[in-house]
Amino acid sequence: MNEPVNIGIVGATGYAGGELLRLLSARSDVCVAAITSDRAAGKHVTDFYPALRGWLDLYFDSPSLDSLVECDLVFFATPHGVAMNMAPDLLEAGKRVVDLSADFRLRDADVWASWYGQAHKAPEWLPQAVYGLPELSRSGIDNARLVAAPGCFVTAVVLGLKPLLESGLIEQNGIIADAKTGASGAGRTSNPVFGFAEVAESMRAYGVAGHRHLPEIQQALDSLSASPVDLTFVPHLVPMVRGMQATLYARRIGSGDVRAALEAAYTNEAFIDVLPAGHQPTTAQVRATNNAMLGVSTLESGRVIVTTVIDNLLKGAAGQAVQCFNRMIGVSETTGLEAVASWP
Ligand SMILES: NC(=O)c1ccc[n+]([C@@H]2O[C@H](COP(=O)([O-])OP(=O)(O)OC[C@H]3O[C@@H](n4cnc5c(N)ncnc54)[C@H](OP(=O)(O)O)[C@@H]3O)[C@@H](O)[C@H]2O)c1
């Protein structure tokens, strides 16, 4: 058997970093060798995650390159602005990086700066970053030095629209993506807006005038289409812990079989399930899994409606990052990711 791959996780006390720990500490082909956090530096991993008792014996380090350079590959599960400062040194030291943040997702450093309000610190790495949404494109992931794992909204929207745009079954104009996320989508924040008292029994739209995921969705959809896609994207915060649904509205072109196009596109995809006619997916059906479920309806009005559900922390973040990581280390994409949703 090969030696385990040594990995590090920067941002291991966050929700996405916690899911990376859960997925990777259970694997015999992976050694979680370094985890970093400011607030937990010096603490044992089980002080923060008691559930990892018996799975991982490791202490948190402060976020610095010292422990990370011992790793073969480093995951960044940090807010935007961290990986672009730390990853270049690791990459130059020959390490590989999977970044779950937005730092390397956009191709254009000026577009990135305009949405994130600061100059990009490593624009020279943008052309080398491989976008890590395998069902969109696997090109370059296996040998990538730097993978930019997509955002959760982007994943939900792109999975639902890709086959229809590629087969010319929907108009590129007037597409609407109405998306809902649970509160863990905002991370482990102390902002009261995401606390129980304000999320429970309530729902609200945010980023209506322009959400940071919009340029990333646009970039991905435009890669599927001869001319730019005209998209309205409105995210909503809904009272659940995890889970995401995108309801996608588009105008149909011709009378081609929309469901057949989706089924054909995803028939060999381990994580994507197009439900039979008359069925709608629920976020509970994908909870704690790397799966995406799609419902599809064609209406008399000529509209096509696709509903996509994912777990924002798995197919929307850590699961997708591990899916890419599996390809990078040459094991099956599904390794450590096959799971049935917990219920109820
Ligand atoms: N949550 C989701 O559904 C989701 C989905 C897709 C992508 N993402 C992306 O994944 C990343 C992590 O999201 P999250 O929800 O897990 O966030 P989170 O719960 O807020 O966790 C952030 C982590 O980053 C660490 N951190 C914060 N500032 C840092 C700095 N300057 N240097 C080093 N580490 C720092 C924090 O550690 P300490 O404070 O302990 O030091 C914490 O471990 C974000 O970029 C997010 O956009 C999240």
Notes on the structure:
This protein has 344 residues and is α/β, with parallel strands linked by helices. The chain has two domains: 5-149 and 317-328, NAD(P)-binding Rossmann-like Domain (Rossmann fold, 3-Layer(aba) Sandwich); 153-310, Dihydrodipicolinate Reductase, domain 2. It is 25% helix and 20% strand. Helix 1 crosses helix 10 (318-328). The model has no long low-confidence stretch (mean pLDDT 96). Residues 10-17, 37-40, 63, 77-80, 82, 100-101, 151-152, 184-185, 187-189, 312-313, 316-317 line the site of NADP nicotinamide-adenine-dinucleotide phosphate (NAP). NADP nicotinamide-adenine-dinucleotide phosphate is lined by residues 10-17, 37-40, 63, 77-80, 82, 100-101, 151-152, 184-185, 187-189, 312-313, 316-317.
For the terminal residues, how far apart are their CA atoms? 38 Å
Q: How does the overall form come out from the CA principal axes?
A: globular
Q: How many beta strands in the DSSP annotation?
A: 14
| Strand portion | 15-25%
Quaternary structure of the protein: single chain
Range of helix content: 25-40%
Radius of gyration: 20 Å
Residue runs with pLDDT of under 50 for 5 or more positions: none
CATH domain fold name of the largest domain = Dihydrodipicolinate Reductase, domain 2
Determine the mean pLDDT: 96
Structural category is: alpha/beta
Output the CATH homologous superfamily of the largest domain.
Dihydrodipicolinate Reductase, domain 2
| Sequence of secondary-structure elements | EHEHEHEHEHEEHEHEHEEHEEEH
Q: What CATH architecture of the largest domain do you see?
A: 2-Layer Sandwich
Number of helices: 10
Q: What would CATH call the class of the largest domain?
A: Alpha Beta
Order of strands, main sheet, comes to 3-2-1-4-5-7-6
Bound molecules: NADP nicotinamide-adenine-dinucleotide phosphate
The domain count comes to 2
Give the biggest beta sheet: 7 strands, parallel
